[in-house]
Amino acid sequence: VLIAIGRDACTRNIGLQTIGVKINEKNGKIPVNDEEQTNVPYVYAIGDILDGKLELTPVAIQAGRLLAQRLYGGSSRKCDYINVPTTVFTPLEYGSCGFPEEKAIEEYGKQNLEVYHSLFWPLEWTVPGRDNNTCYAKIICNKQDNNRVIGLHVLGPNAGEVTQGFAAAIKCGLTKELLDETIGIHPTCAEVFTTMDITKASGQDITQKGC
């Protein structure tokens, strides 16, 4: 990565102070409650402007649709800002959905979590002889809730495609048991999530000898 360009929240010159809408003075973003409502009850904010939320176009679209449905359609559905699948499209893609491990520990406590992980070697890398054990997969499970998967992370080819599929399963309450009962498609990168048996706490070796 040679240069990364962020976004500025241009909120200081649009009159928000006139009606009393609070902003985060450090970054110009707007704090809201779980219904995208600002401190002024009749003013809502959605999208990248939200303080502490993901700057992703599909998230903004979903939040906007749900807000409109709540305001004018009698709905009560709120946007889920946790189980959002996303990918970094670097040459070796990184995809994730749900909690990062650090946030999961803050939210649930380390003693209530089980983290399974594995290195893996994509089949398409065997012919050109690319390095083994470069790709990585991890799931974070809540032991207090039937080992429900609350975080999924993958570093490898087509991580975006892999993550998008598992994201739907996570929304449906995916558990470690269900992953173990799922028959993997061999040889695929996503198969690694159906064969994980080493926990991070065990300290066991996670390197793989073959594809």
UniProtKB/TrEMBL annotation:
Domain called Pyridine nucleotide-disulphide oxidoreductase dimerisation: residue spans: 84-196
GO cellular component: cytosol; mitochondrion
This protein's record includes keyword Chaperone: no
Name of the encoding gene: Txnrd3
UniProt keyword list: Disulfide bond, FAD, Flavoprotein, NADP, Oxidoreductase, Redox-active center
Residues annotated as domain FAD/NAD(P)-binding: 1-64
Organism for this UniProt entry: Malurus elegans (Red-winged fairywren)
UniProt keyword Transmembrane, yes or no: no
Cofactors: FAD
Domain of life of the native organism: Eukaryota
Biological process according to GO: cell redox homeostasis; cellular response to oxidative stress; glutathione metabolic process
Name recorded for this polypeptide: TRXR3 reductase
Family: Belongs to the class-I pyridine nucleotide-disulfide oxidoreductase family.
GO molecular function: flavin adenine dinucleotide binding; glutathione-disulfide reductase (NADPH) activity
